[in-house]
Amino acid sequence: MEPENVKQLLQTHLTDCDIEVAGDGRHFDITVVGDVFEGLNAVKKQQLVYAALNPQIADGSIHAVNMKTYTRAEMAAKSQSF
Q: How far is CA 67 from CA 23, 31, 70, in A?
């Protein structure tokens, strides 16, 4: 599976989010930024991302995911700290 395919899957489930995906075919690094994460703890944020990818994880198309999830406010604060 290509990173662009993973990005398309995520965009279908996480509309209005900024999504970046990098990977080598079965292992992916994902960053998702969106207001959909507002008020959620880290586990709930990850569950939203995994929900979009569960069929591909179950069939082995995706083996491992490293993800970072941020609200837009969290990303803005992170960007200003550099």
A: 12, 6, 10
Helix, strand, coil % (nearest 5) of the chain? 50, 25, 25
Model-level pTM? 0.91
Alpha carbon distance 72, 58 (integer Å): 30
Q: Is 59 exposed, middle or buried (0-12, 13-18, 19+ CB in 10 A)?
A: exposed
Is the pLDDT reported for residue 82 higher than 80?
A: no
Per the CB < 8 A criterion, the answer to whether 22 and 64 are in contact is: no
If you average pLDDT over residues 28-37, what whole number do you get? 97
* The two structure tokens encoding residue 1: 């599976």
Strand partners, 32: 19, 69
Note whether 26 and 64 are within 8 A (CB): yes
